[in-house]
Specification:
The chain is α/β, with parallel strands linked by helices. Helix content is 49%, strand content 16%. It has helices spanning 26-40, 64-76, 86-89, 93-105, 123-158, and strands at 8-16, 43-52, 80-83, 109-112. A four-stranded parallel beta sheet has the order 2-1-3-4, sandwiched between helices. Strand 1 (8-16), helix 1 and strand 2 form a beta-alpha-beta unit.
Amino acid sequence: MPYDGFMVKAFGYLRVSGKGQLDGDGFPRQLAAIKKYATAHDIKIVTVFREEGVTGTKESMDRPAFSEMMTALHANGVRTIIIERLDRLARDLMVQEATIADLRKHGFTVISVAEPDLMENDPSRKAFRQMMGVFAEYEKDTIVAKLRGARMRMRAKEGRCEERK
């Protein structure tokens, strides 16, 4: 994706939703996918922003790393963000579409390694992107429901579920 002989510069954006995931595979997996894609497409990752323990249902500007990245996008000429998958950007359809619309409005591009044509605006691609957003939201809701049920069962059996935060 070189432009007039220059390598495109991009920011990487990584997100895990739970504090318990900070030491897990999420960040290394996302970073490896982003770096592999960037290398294959002549894109230089200049900065990686890590959203640590922030749900994908929060508005993008309520996320510290995303807000910092947006400030940097407006300040230094980088116009591209690379994410591993669409659900790293958002796990709520409305947040997803509002974030994409805002980025588009300012002339920024999001590249998803798993869905590289994420920002295309033809009706079929837009519908597919929105369906992926619906399923990401559904998956998040089912995970939350399963965890809630497990905590309730443990509380009923043990009298408590978790250590104090």
